[in-house]
Amino acid sequence: MTPCLSRSGRPTPASLLLLVLLVLAGCAGNGQELTDATPAELPTDPQLNAEVTASFITYRAAVTRGDADAAMAHVTTESLDDQARVVELARSADEETVRQLPAAEQLLVLTYRLRPQLLEAEDPYAALVDAGLAGQDRSLGELGDISRVNEDLAVAEVLSNRTLEPTSLRWRFHLEDNRWRFDLADAQRLVSQAVANSARLSNASVEQVVTATIVDLSGEDVETVRELYSEPPV
After folding, report:
1. In whole angstroms, what is the distance from residue 40 CA to residue 217 CA?
2. What would the 3-class secondary structure string for the chain be?
3. What is the predicted pLDDT for the residue at 137?
4. pLDDT tens digits, residue range 81-135?
5. Per-domain boundaries in the chain
6. Which strands, in side-by-side order, build the sheet including 179-182?
7. In whole angstroms, what is the distance from residue 90 CA to residue 41 CA?
């Protein structure tokens, strides 16, 4: 991968989606696994495959069209609780705390701070999804083989968007209320890895890549975005 740099050397990724797609295409790093829930070889279960795949496709489509109700019905309760934690960070965390967050959480915090109306919503994460700011269909890849690790946990291999070849990435799904639900933690680790790899290849800091990504997606100037690290919304 050729680093994407401006003439000043500042990283200018085309978008957060591009960063994630590069990982899924195997172009942005060593492709290390992002989950420790790697199953042993298990027999194929057609019903499991159908249920997990249907939930995943429904989630992807809902996020892409900005349908929070449908998307949130297909993610784990723990994932939603974690999003609520990030919302509180966006509301009150100081500069040092924000800079120490994983890159994916930095991106979320800055996105919320750039759009204070999201934080004023009854459910800020739902507002984020409804605004079309929570991701895109192709940024999560396709599902390959799916194995059931235990009664309430299944793990699916992730296929490259470009070639449909298996990658070393795995998505986890938890059975809650008789529905397989996507664990967003793995996707957030993927984003953090993509940002870290982009920073390394561009000889830049994670903060620079995060800032450049928000600038690219929002059209705001660099200084405005940098100030979001230290200025929680009033």
Report:
1. 40
2. CCCCECCCCCECCCCHHHHHHHHHCCCCCCCCCCCCCCCCCCCCCHHHHHHHHHHHHHHHHHHHHCCHHHHHCCECHHHHHHHHHHHHHHHHCCHHHHHCCCHHHHHHHHHHHHCHHHHCCCCHHHHHHHCCCCCCHHHHCEEEEEEEEECCEEEEEEECCCCCCEEEEEEEEEEECCEEEECHHHHHHHHHHHHHHHHHHCCCCHHHHHHHHHHHHHCCCHHHHHHCCCCCCC
3. 57
4. 999 999 999 999 999 999 999 999 999 999 999 999 999 999 999 999 999 887 6
5. 34-189
6. 142-150, 153-159, 166-176, 179-182
7. 42
Query: Token pair 């008789």 is at which residue?
Result: 178
Place of tokens 């249907």: 54
Instruction: Look at 27-31, 92-96, 188-192, 206-210 and tell me which has the smallest mean pLDDT.
Output: 27-31
Fold topology of 34-189 = Nuclear Transport Factor 2; Chain: A, (3.10.450)
Give the residue from 24, 18, 22, 19 showing the smallest Cα distance to 158: 24
CB 11 within 8 A of CB 199: yes
